[in-house]
From TrEMBL:
This is Outer membrane protein assembly factor BamE. Residues 35-112 form the Outer membrane protein assembly factor BamE domain. It is found in: Cell outer membrane. InterPro entries: BamE (IPR026592), BamE-like (IPR037873), BamE_dom (IPR007450). It comes from Moraxella porci DSM 25326.
Length: 124
C-alpha cells in the first residue's frame, strides 16, 4: 500500500515542478507608468514667454520641481510593461528617455524649453 502512495507523491511533485515553469501559470503584473506622459503636440503648445500657470494648465504638474532650482520644471516619463502591456506589444520606456524641461525666469515666464524631440507624436 505504501508503494502506490510514494509513486503518486513522486508523480505529483514532478508535475508541480514541470508546470511551475509554464507561462500559462505566471503571476499577473501591472503596467507601471511613472511620470507624466506627454506628446509632441502638447509640448508644441508651450511657447517662450508663457507664464508658469499657463504651462501648468497645458501640461499639468511636473514630475520634478527641484527646490534648489525652482525655475526649472521637469516632465519625465518611464513605462514598464506588465501583463497587459506585453500582450499589446507595448515597449518599455526606460531611463527617462521621454522628457521635457522647461526653464523660467525670475518673473515666472518661460525662457527655454528642452527635450521636445524626445516626445512621441502620440501617447504611449
Amino acid at each position: 500500500m505504501k508503494k502506490p502512495t510514494l509513486s503518486l507523491l513522486t508523480l505529483g511533485m514532478a508535475a508541480v515542478l514541470t508546470l511551475s515553469g509554464c507561462s500559462a501559470f505566471r503571476v499577473y503584473t501591472i503596467d507601471l507608468p511613472q511620470g507624466t506622459p506627454l506628446t509632441a503636440a502638447q509640448a508644441a503648445q508651450v511657447q517662450v514667454g508663457m507664464s508658469a500657470n499657463q504651462v501648468l494648465y497645458i501640461l499639468g504638474s511636473p514630475a520634478l520641481k527641484d527646490t534648489l532650482a525652482p525655475n526649472r520644471w521637469d516632465y519625465i516619463y518611464d513605462y514598464t510593461a506588465g501583463t497587459d502591456g506585453k500582450r499589446k506589444d507595448k515597449a518599455d520606456i526606460k531611463n527617462a528617455s521621454q522628457y521635457l524641461s522647461i526653464y523660467f525666469n525670475n518673473q515666472g515666464q518661460v525662457v527655454r524649453i528642452d527635450g521636445r524631440d524626445s516626445l512621441p507624436a502620440i501617447r504611449h
